[in-house]
């Protein structure tokens, strides 16, 4: 097979090429917004600079608008072009990835509002734990978008490895945070918020893993989701 | 009878030359329950090789579509299956094609009865310039399939019914077949093919002259007929191939590049030529 990346733009119809290129570009732009929102949410968590909170709200709105725009592009491509083979896989993958990106946006929005509730006390409980998870999740998100942009299977597989890493960090963060709650029950309310933040970040990582799965589907035409019920799965 | 050899079939399409065509067909050429089997089939028009070493099984009660660019050999190969190519002087076929384990190119085979077993429907509806009734009754009469007028009436009625045309024409069976609409004429031709109880029906772009409604009716008919007949359809419409067929075979420059389950071919084709053709990437 040809390199898929060049391949998308070799149709006889140049208009079709442009529509597919626009679809890919729009998805990557939406991914860029989610990355920006992740940065803003974490910055807000660590600096407590309230101007950042309105920024995450603003980005959230842009992400939602991008979801609607991409859904319309997908719908138009199906109606006008009846894509098949790799074109079909691209359109389907984009349609699925859009959903994951939008959910990431929701999770990060939660991180913002939960962070606000954490600020009532000045303690730095949980900061290190959240940072460790956030670093890994930011890499996963970035790599999943790069894997999509470059149709890079190795990078997509790397994300599965990183997901297991995040799971470990998340579990150990939960244990550490539980200790704080046990030490002083007055911490419980606040620490629980941090637990929810960790949980939301971990979910963002899961969505990045989904994107990696769609990249594999896009490139190879195999569905690797759901080990156990799916014979194609790696696990 | 319409022209059998078009220029595009004899000439090579230059723009496609230079692309690597695999020596061996990708995908499974065999099926568990074959109605017809073709092995190492070559077809020459004079010096020109139009079909290059094609082997393929065609399964019982299965719809298989042949797709590929103009001049790729799909219609030529289709016409080998009921020896329509015999009518062209310069055409020579070698290799082996069997129906129910019987070689159709065997000298003992009666070509007329072979063409009753392997019927054909053409691109342009071509009803005989006779009444609707006689269009259907013609085959059963020459093959001696009806012992009485009553039996002939039954064959005509059941053929028209199976072709989904009975309700539309039952009150005007004595009127000329050529007076029907294009879509009705095509279904009349399918009814005519069915009337001689074929095992296989070959369809060469049966809907390319029809509007979407008439096309949908013919496709619905193909869907209903698949239970009883093996259907081979040549089509230029990718969507039609995807809609109607169980298996899809992609031809290119006289070779069979790839054959597989229709879903696989249209979601994840194995060969880049297949991929490029079905997605509209031949420049």
Any chance you could write out the topology, listing elements then pairs?
The complex is a heterodimer of chains A (235) and B (283).
Chain A: H1 4-7, H2 14-47, H3 51-81, H4 85-118, H5 127-150, H6 153-183, H7 188-220
Helix pairs in contact in A: 2-3, 2-4, 2-5, 3-4, 4-7, 5-6, 5-7, 6-7
Chain B: H1 7-10, E1 34-45, E2 48-59, E3 63-67, H2 74-80, E4 91-99, E5 102-103, H3 111-117, E6 118-121, H4 132-142, H5 149-162, H6 166-169, H7 182-194, E7 200-204, H8 212-225, E8 230-234, H9 238-244, E9 247-252, E10 255-261, H10 262-267, H11 272-278
Parallel strand pairs in B: 3-8, 3-9, 6-7, 7-8
Antiparallel strand pairs in B: 1-2, 1-4, 4-5, 9-10
Helix pairs in contact in B: 4-5, 4-7, 5-7, 7-8
What do you see in this structure?
The complex is a heterodimer of chains A (235) and B (283). Helices cover 81% and strands 0% of the residues of chain A. In chain A, helix 3 (51-81) packs antiparallel against helix 4 (85-118) and helix 5 packs parallel to helix 7. By secondary structure, chain A is mostly helical. Chain A has a single domain (4-220), classed as Methane Monooxygenase Hydroxylase, Chain G, domain 1, CATH 1.20.58. Chain A is elongated. Chain A is built from seven helices and no strands. With 283 residues, chain B is α/β, with parallel strands linked by helices. Chain B has a single domain, classed as Rossmann fold (3-Layer(aba) Sandwich), CATH 3.40.50. Chain B has helices at 7-10, 74-80, 111-117, 132-142, 149-162, 166-169, 182-194, 212-225, 238-244, 262-267, 272-278; strands at 34-45, 48-59, 63-67, 91-99, 102-103, 118-121, 200-204, 230-234, 247-252, 255-261. In chain B, a hairpin with a 2-residue loop joins strand 9 and strand 10 (255-261). Mean pLDDT of chain B is 90; it is low at 1-15. Chains A and B meet through helix 4 of A and helix 9 and helix 11 of B.
């Amino acid at each position: 097979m040809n390199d898929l990346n060049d391949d998308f733009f070799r149709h006889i119809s140049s208009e079709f090429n442009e529509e597919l290129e626009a679809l890919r570009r729009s998805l990557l732009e939406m991914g860029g917004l989610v990355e920006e929102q992740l940065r803003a949410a974490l910055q807000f968590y660590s600096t407590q600079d309230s101007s950042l909170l309105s920024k995450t709200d603003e980005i959230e709105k842009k992400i939602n608008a991008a979801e609607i725009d991409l859904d319309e592009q997908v719908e138009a491509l199906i109606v006008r072009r009846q894509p098949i083979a790799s074109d079909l896989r691209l359109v389907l993958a984009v349609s699925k990835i859009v959903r994951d990106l939008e959910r990431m946006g929701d999770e990060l929005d939660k991180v913002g509002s939960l962070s606000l509730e954490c600020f009532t006390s000045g303690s730095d409980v949980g900061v290190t734990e959240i940072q460790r998870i956030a670093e890994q999740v930011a890499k996963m998100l970035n790599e999943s978008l790069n894997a999509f942009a470059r149709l890079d299977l190795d990078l997509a597989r790397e994300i599965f490895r990183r997901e297991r890493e995040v799971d470990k960090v998340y579990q150990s963060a939960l244990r550490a945070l539980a200790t704080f709650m046990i030490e002083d029950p007055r911490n419980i309310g606040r620490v629980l918020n941090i637990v929810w933040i960790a949980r939301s970040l971990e979910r963002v990582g899961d969505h990045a893993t989904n994107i990696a799965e769609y990249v594999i589907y896009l490139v190879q035409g195999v569905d690797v989701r759901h080990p156990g019920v799916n014979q194609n799965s790696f696990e | 009878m319409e022209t059998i050899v078009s220029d595009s079939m004899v000439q090579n399409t230059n723009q496609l030359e230079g692309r690597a065509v695999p020596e061996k067909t990708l995908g499974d050429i065999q099926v568990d329950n074959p109605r017809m089997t073709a092995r190492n089939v070559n077809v020459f028009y004079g010096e020109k090789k139009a079909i290059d070493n094609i082997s393929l099984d065609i399964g019982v009660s299965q719809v298989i579509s042949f797709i590929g660019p103009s001049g790729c050999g799909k219609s030529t190969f289709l016409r080998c299956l009921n020896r329509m190519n015999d009518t062209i002087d310069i055409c020579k076929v070698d290799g082996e094609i069997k129906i129910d384990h019987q070689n159709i190119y065997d000298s003992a085979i009666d070509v007329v009865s072979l063409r009753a077993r392997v019927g054909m429907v053409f691109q342009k509806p071509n009803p005989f310039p006779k009444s609707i009734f006689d269009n259907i009754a013609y085959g059963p009469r020459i093959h001696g399939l009806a012992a009485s007028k009553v039996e002939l009436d039954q064959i005509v009625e059941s053929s028209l019914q199976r072709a989904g045309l009975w309700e539309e024409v039952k009150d005007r069976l004595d009127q000329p077949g050529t007076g029907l609409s294009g879509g009705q004429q095509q279904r009349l031709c399918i009814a005519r093919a069915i009337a001689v109880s074929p095992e296989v029906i070959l369809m060469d772009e049966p809907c390319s002259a029809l509007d979407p409604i008439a096309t949908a009716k013919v496709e619905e008919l193909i869907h209903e007929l698949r239970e009883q007949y093996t259907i081979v359809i040549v089509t230029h419409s990718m969507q039609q191939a995807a809609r109607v067929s169980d298996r899809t075979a992609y031809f290119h420059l006289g070779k069979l590049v790839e054959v597989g389950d229709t879903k696989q071919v249209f979601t994840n084709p194995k060969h880049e030529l297949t991929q490029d053709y079905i997605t509209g990437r031949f420049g």
